[in-house]
């Protein structure tokens, strides 16, 4: 006789279960079982209640979905939130952000800022994020301690940055961190050449060689503004995407962040190479950088994910809000009210993000054998009533404060809106202290 299955660690019984894969499905009266950090059961409530489980949680009025995936940000920049608002990208960078980073960024800044970002993201239903910032080893330690899932993109620039005096030193640190975390259950490491205008052809070639050797992802700001594209044409005689194609960097490993400027030739390159695009609508809107043509990309078969960018240019790490903005903006940009409907928008914030980060076998949808990265959104409030389509109510009528419970790999990191592993009061005090120091110097 076959041995009976061991009891589930946790059985969750929400009002609605949205697996994301298959697409467009909403399951009512279903339960999901977790064992050893993985999804071990999905089925009707009556079948679920016949199973042995160490803990059973009723989640009335809640929509249970895959955890949200924030595919682009600079976590520690939470400590620069609101420092230099309402400025164009290059003015913002050259006259405000880069000088502030040179003055303030050290290991303590990165640790405190990253922990603040992790807390903010967990409270908004985000279970996985991609981070691209200085002292990446410190950021990885914060992620490890928090229980969250992340991709750490090691920043690479041609000039000295905090923690790396040269491009080659940064690349060496990246390779070392990749090796150290190769078998980590929740952290992956990517190479992060900053942008076409800050990394030379010779150094991009080094990135290509190392990325191929390690089979490592490459995360890069690309076609963020019309100015960047025109500058490349003037200086190199080609668009940045064509330049990366010539060097051999396009492909499923490349995560092209922003892509507000997409010509027909650009689109063909993205499709042929199977390169993923990361859409950061609110940062692009705030910096007046342009509009990523999401619907056009999606219809052509390009995998499009979503990111918040850093809190210095957004100014929040609210991926649910970002998803709503993306859905609305896609309609205006394409001139079609049916562009990027609510179900596809949620897919962009979950499974498409996992695919972008090379994690689609691990997370991004509620499927048997995948990691139990889950968020329970509370749709019982007045603002969500009446409910015809809970996914529509989530995307168009809910805020991130509806995130009530969050699990990563089966471990509960948010319980009734309270963080289980991070000290909110300490984080608040630390952020205020940094604000007084930086604000006093900046005035």
Describe this structure in words.
The strands form three sheets. Strands 1, 2, 3, 4, 5, 14, 15, 16 and 17 form a nine-stranded mixed beta sheet that branches. This protein has a four-stranded parallel beta sheet with strand order 6-7-8-9. The protein has 16 helices and 17 strands. The protein starts with 9 loop residues before the first strand and ends with a helix. It has two domains: 96 residues, Urease, subunit C, domain 1 (Roll), CATH 2.30.40.10; 289 residues, Alpha-Beta Barrel (TIM Barrel). The protein is globular and about 65 Å long. By secondary structure, it is α/β, with parallel strands linked by helices.
Top keywords for this entry?
globular; 4-stranded parallel β-sheet; 9-stranded mixed β-sheet; Urease, subunit C, domain 1; 443 residues; 16 helices; alpha/beta; TIM Barrel
- Kindly, what is the distance between the CA atoms of the first and last residues, rounded to a whole number of angstroms? 75 Å
CATH architecture of the largest domain: Alpha-Beta Barrel
Strand content: 15-25%
Largest sheet: 9 strands, mixed
Radius of gyration: 21 Å
Specify the helix fraction band. 25-40%
CATH superfamily of the largest domain: Metal-dependent hydrolases
The helix/strand class is alpha/beta
Q: Catalogue the unreliable spans.
A: none
Give the CA-based shape: globular
CATH hierarchy class name of the largest domain: Alpha Beta
Number of helices: 16
CATH topology of the largest domain: TIM Barrel
Mean pLDDT, nearest integer? 96
Structural domain tally? 2
């Amino acid at each position: 006789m076959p041995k009976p299955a061991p009891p589930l660690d946790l059985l969750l019984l929400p009002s609605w279960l949205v697996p994301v894969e298959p697409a467009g499905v909403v399951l009512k009266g279903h339960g999901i079982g977790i064992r050893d950090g993985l999804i071990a059961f999905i089925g009707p409530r009556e079948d679920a209640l016949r199973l042995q489980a160490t803990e059973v949680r009723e989640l009335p009025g809640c929509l249970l979905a895959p955890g949200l995936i924030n595919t682009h940000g600079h976590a520690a920049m939470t400590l620069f939130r609101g420092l230099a608002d309402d400025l164009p990208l290059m003015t913002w960078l050259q006259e405000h952000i880069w000088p502030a980073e040179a003055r303030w960024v050290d290991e303590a800044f990165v640790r405190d800022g990253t922990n603040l970002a992790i807390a903010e993201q967990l409270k908004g239903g985000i279970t996985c994020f991609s981070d691209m910032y200085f002292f990446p080893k410190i950021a990885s330690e914060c992620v490890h301690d928090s229980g969250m899932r992340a991709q750490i993109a090691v920043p690479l620039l041609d000039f000295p940055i905090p923690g790396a005096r040269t491009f080659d030193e940064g690349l060496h640190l990246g390779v070392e961190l990749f090796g150290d975390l190769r078998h980590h259950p929740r952290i992956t490491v990517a190479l992060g050449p900053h942008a076409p205008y800050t990394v030379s052809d010779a150094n991009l070639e080094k990135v290509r060689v190392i990325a191929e050797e390690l089979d490592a992802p490459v995360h890069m700001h690309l076609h963020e503004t019309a100015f960047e594209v025109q500058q490349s044409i003037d200086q190199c005689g080609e668009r940045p995407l064509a330049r990366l194609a010539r060097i051999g960097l396009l492909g499923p490993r490349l995560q092209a962040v922003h892509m507000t400027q997409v010509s027909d030739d650009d689109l063909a390159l993205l499709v042929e190479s199977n390169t993923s695009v990361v859409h950061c609508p609110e940062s692009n809107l705030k910096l007046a950088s342009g509009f990523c043509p999401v619907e056009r990309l999606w219809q052509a078969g390009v995998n499009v994910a979503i990111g918040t960018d850093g809190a210095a240019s957004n100014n929040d790490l609210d991926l649910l809000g970002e998803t709503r903005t993306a859905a609305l903006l896609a309609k205006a940009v394409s001139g079609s009210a049916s562009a990027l409907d609510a179900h596809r928008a949620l897919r962009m914030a979950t499974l498409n993000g996992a695919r972008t980060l090379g994690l689609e076998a691990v997370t991004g949808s509620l499927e048997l054998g995948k990691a139990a990265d889950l968020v329970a959104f509370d749709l019982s409030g007045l603002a969500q009533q009446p409910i015809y389509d809970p996914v529509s109510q989530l995307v168009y009528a809910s805020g991130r404060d509806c995130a009530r419970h969050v699990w990563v790999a089966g471990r509960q990191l948010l319980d009734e809106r309270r963080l289980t592993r991070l000290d909110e009061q300490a984080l608040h005090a630390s952020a205020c202290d940094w604000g007084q120091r930086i604000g006093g110097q900046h005035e």
